[in-house]
Design brief:
The relative contact order is 0.18. The chain has one domain. The chain has a six-stranded antiparallel sheet, with helices on both faces. The longest helix has 13 residues. The protein is 16% helix and 28% strand. It is built from three helices and six strands; from the N terminus they run H-E-E-E-E-H-E-E-H. With 198 residues, the protein is of the alpha+beta class. It starts with 35 loop residues before the first helix and ends in a 10-residue tail after the last helix.
Length: 198
């Protein structure tokens, strides 16, 4: 994503204590323009109970310079056949002149988590485009300023054989990803907690 200047510093040192395998769940750090890119990059690799996130959604508002980095996890407890599973969203927020805030939502106490991920799997297929060739549209589909959304999924599926592919989509407020996350964020708004799941 272009034009994203750093916000909120979650350095390697600051995430080594706390949440699971090297992830800090609570705390604050830095001015909001000091390390946003680092926060987003680190969040993609931060494991919870030795499992990496399967995806995430980042928002960056161009005018206010506020942002959020949301990371998605499936958590397994126990061994088969008694093994159970649940889902987590970890959220880091920041902005100009603000300290970072880290919270999370747990599907065992918030039905909005599962609802958001089921809706995620229904996102429309993206059509690649070669400008001025083949299938064309009547509008440019561009929004100036607004809020950039970056969605990524480590184990997306593609094709008739459901091949596993890595996926990353960026779009502004008019994109399906942004519309999905706006609805999901509404469902999660009362679910954020400062303590990690137990």
């Amino acid at each position: 994503m272009t034009n994203r200047q750093g916000a909120g510093n979650e350095s390697a040192a600051s995430v080594r204590d706390g949440w699971g395998s090297g992830v800090r769940w609570t705390g604050s750090g830095g001015e909001a323009q000091d390390g946003f890119d680092e926060t987003e990059r680190a969040s993609r690799e931060l494991a919870f109970e030795q499992r990496q996130p399967f995806g995430g959604l980042t928002q960056f508002a161009y005018l206010s310079r506020s942002w959020s980095v949301n990371t998605f996890y499936t958590v397994f407890r126990g061994r088969p056949p008694e093994q159970t599973k649940f889902w987590i969203v970890r959220r880091v927020t920041g902005g100009a002149g603000q300290a970072n805030t880290i919270v999370g939502a747990d599907s065992r106490t918030c039905e909005g988590v599962e609802k958001a991920f089921i809706a995620m799997e229904q996102l429309p297929v993206v059509r690649p485009d070669a400008p001025q060739l083949g299938q064309e549209t009547e509008t440019m589909g561009l929004v100036l300023d607004g809020t950039q959304h970056i969605f990524w999924n480590r184990w997306a599926r593609s094709g008739p054989d459901d091949a596993t592919v890595g996926l990353e989509i960026s779009g502004n407020v008019n994109s399906p990803v942004a519309e999905w996350w706006a609805e999901a964020a509404g469902s999660l708004s009362q679910c954020w907690r400062a303590t990690p799941p137990e």
